[in-house]
Write a structure and sequence with these properties.
Layout: H1 2-10, H2 12-46, E1 57-59, E2 62-64, H3 66-101, H4 113-126
Antiparallel strand pairs: 1-2
Length: about 130
């Protein structure tokens, strides 16, 4: 069972997924900083200095922090946009590589010399 587990872990897909998760976690920290430190202050300039993280309302003892939800939506949109651009560029590179590797289609073969001579013979025989 240990050998099977080791073979599973050593597969390329699992390793690629692990690298993706680690890079995703690091990327999340960058996006969080970008939204909190750059985008929100910029939006605050245009909408009157509102800090989304402070927006909330209360019902009884419950406090609903909808500003944090707005920040999470902004972070999601940034990540989704970057992933979209990444997938688009990878697909473009893959298509370009496939075009380079694809062999040129063979020219359609016409009738051979013997076929042409046999047609001429048959046409003359009919006359």
């Amino acid at each position: 069972m240990l050998k099977e587990f080791r073979a599973f872990i050593a597969k390329g897909n699992v390793m690629d997924m692990a690298v993706g998760i680690i890079l995703g976690a690091a990327f999340t920290a960058i996006v969080t900083s970008m939204v909190d430190d750059l985008i929100n202050p910029l939006l605050g300039i245009f909408i009157g200095g509102i800090d989304f993280s402070g927006l909330s309302f209360g019902v009884g003892d419950a406090q609903f922090m909808y500003g944090n939800f707005i920040n999470a939506v902004i972070k999601f949109l940034v990540v989704a946009w970057v992933v979209f651009l990444l997938v688009k560029s990878v697909n473009k590179m893959r298509d370009a590589a496939a075009k380079k590797e694809a062999p040129a289609p063979a020219a359609p073969k016409g009738p051979s010399e013997i076929d042409v001579l046999m047609e001429i013979r048959d046409a003359l025989a009919k006359k």
